[in-house]
UniProtKB/TrEMBL annotation:
The keyword Zinc-finger does not apply. It comes from Microlunatus capsulatus. InterPro entries: ArgE/DapE_CS, Bact_exopeptidase_dim_dom, Peptidase_M20, Peptidase_M20_dimer, Peptidase_M20A. Pfam families: M20_dimer, Peptidase_M20. Its cofactor is Zn(2+). Residues 211-339 form the Peptidase M20 dimerisation domain. Belongs to the peptidase M20A family. This is Acetylornithine deacetylase/succinyl-diaminopimelate desuccinylase-like protein.
Length: 453
């Protein structure tokens, strides 16, 4: 690979320089409270904002000063309008440098990409937002609505020191806001149907997240009588637990199309000129198959899932243990929480106790209201042929925390088409990178949305 361009901080498109510098801060979040570097990066962000005349807040939970967040409110020219929150997390997942082609914490610019852990999850959007704020600071230009920007810690674990904590401890910072824009969504994709021939022209799609499945972590415990394995009884907790896990894992949850998923499938079907019938499970299955990759992640978000992931039981092969336990990852489409909770005891059966170790309800925002329209309009101004597709995330982001404030939460971290077909890649994997062309397009679109909406 050829390394090109100026080093971080040098002249050139500011968003690229900002991103490269931010990638140089190792802000690894290992989870379970272990992390490094969030406060040094937060302080650097504060410095970048002070340089252009803003006075942002640096906020950390008192027992975790090394896990700081930055919040800034920029008053709009029409303060009576509901405001917009724009949020981005500063932490990243770990990177094994030995597996990478480049140093993951050096902000390398090469081959038309910016490389590094966090390049597309999500220091790219953090850099775009920072570039917009610095532009406003330098020029005196101001947004139409109040815009609150939050650069947060701890998204890659549980947000307890970042978004969740800010929402609990400082809800006043978000007063008067109507919607939030954050992680996930807004990336260009050329899509075709699953059975399209090689010459079929692609549709220019941008998926904008308007919902997330709920994330519920379930702990199961079966208890019985410990004893000699040569004389098994019916109450072996390992067997009781396995039976319950078998029922859960193999349960085919019925299709439940939340409005956002229905809108996703019908928008895609219209754009790709495919007839679909979304009123019956079989029709939804057929639509998912026909739409192929374009319909990702609706194959997961159109129903709940209960996935066993952790097992603990036993200590010696000839001893029946007194208890056995397991953990199950439960995901729930918007609007399906109550049905799922009602069905769980029947699936678990007798003899298995359950508790939730975490419980985050699904979130969903309207796809036929003014905020989604504003996002779509910003994309269309930059790409008149765009098809903006609402989508629901299979997993979750900080939107779950900010939705607790009553905000309509959207995932929109725009990335445009790279003329040579490069794509952002490597999220949570190796060689994470974002195409420079995509980043520049995204920065312009996000600035447009933040300024004119
Ligand atoms: Zn992320």
């Amino acid at each position: 690979m050829t390394e090109t361009g100026p080093p971080p901080g040098a002249d050139g498109p500011e968003v690229v320089a900002l991103l490269r510098t931010m990638l140089g801060f190792d802000t690894t979040n290992w989870g379970r409270g272990r992390s490094r570097g969030e406060t040094p990066l937060a302080r650097w962000v504060v410095g970048q904002l002070r340089q252009v005349g803003f006075e942002p807040l640096l906020l950390a939970r008192p027992d975790a000063p090394e896990r700081a967040n930055v919040v800034l409110r920029v008053p709009g020219t029409e303060p009576d309008l509901p405001g917009l929150l724009v949020h981005a997390h500063l932490d990243v997942v770990p990177a094994e440098a030995a597996d990478w082609s480049v140093d993951p914490f050096a902000g390398v610019l090469a081959d038309g990409y910016v490389w590094g852990r966090g390049a597309s999850d999500m220091k790219d959007m953090a850099a775009m937002v920072l570039a917009t704020l610095r532009h406003w600071g330098r020029t005196g230009e101001r947004p139409r609505r109040d815009v609150v920007v939050a650069f947060v810690a701890d998204e890659e674990d549980r947000g307890e020191l970042g978004a969740e904590w800010l929402v609990d401890a400082h809800p006043d910072l978000f007063a008067g806001l109507g919607a939030a824009v954050g992680e996930s969504g807004g990336e260009f994709r050329a899509v075709r149907t699953a059975d399209a021939g090689a010459g079929t022209p692609a549709v220019r799609c941008y998926a904008v997240s308007a919902g997330e499945r709920g994330t519920m972590h379930l702990r199961l415990t079966a208890t019985g009588r410990a004893g000699h394995a040569s004389r098994p009884g019916a109450d072996n907790p390992v067997v009781v637990l396995l039976d319950a896990l078998h029922r859960l894992a193999h349960h085919r949850w019925p299709v439940h199309l939340a409005p956002v998923v229905r809108a996703q499938l019908s928008t895609l079907a219209a754009a790709l000129d495919v007839e679909v019938d979304l009123d019956e499970d079989a029709g939804v299955e057929a639509a998912l198959e026909r739409l192929g990759e374009a319909a990702d992640p609706a194959r997961w978000t159109s129903r709940a899932s209960t996935t066993p992931t952790v097992l603990e039981a036993g200590y010696k092969v000839n001893v029946i243990p007194g208890s056995a336990s397991a953990e199950v990852d439960v995901r729930c489409p918007p609007g399906y929480d109550e049905e799922l909770l009602a069905a769980l005891p029947g699936l678990l059966g007798e003899g298995v106790e359950h508790t939730f170790t975490s419980f985050q309800r699904p979130v969903e925002a309207p796809v036929d209201g003014p905020w989604f329209d504003a996002i779509r309009a910003a994309v269309l101004r930059a790409d008149p042929e765009a098809v903006v597709v609402p989508t629901c995330m299979a997993g979750g982001t900080d939107a779950k925390a900010f939705a607790r404030l009553g905000l309509q939460c959207y995932g929109f971290a725009p990335l445009g088409e790279d003329p040579d077909g490069r794509r952002a890649s490597g999220v949570h994997g190796v060689d994470e990178r974002v195409p420079v062309a995509s980043l520049l397009w995204g920065a312009a679109v996000l600035a447009d949305l933040m300024t004119t909406t």
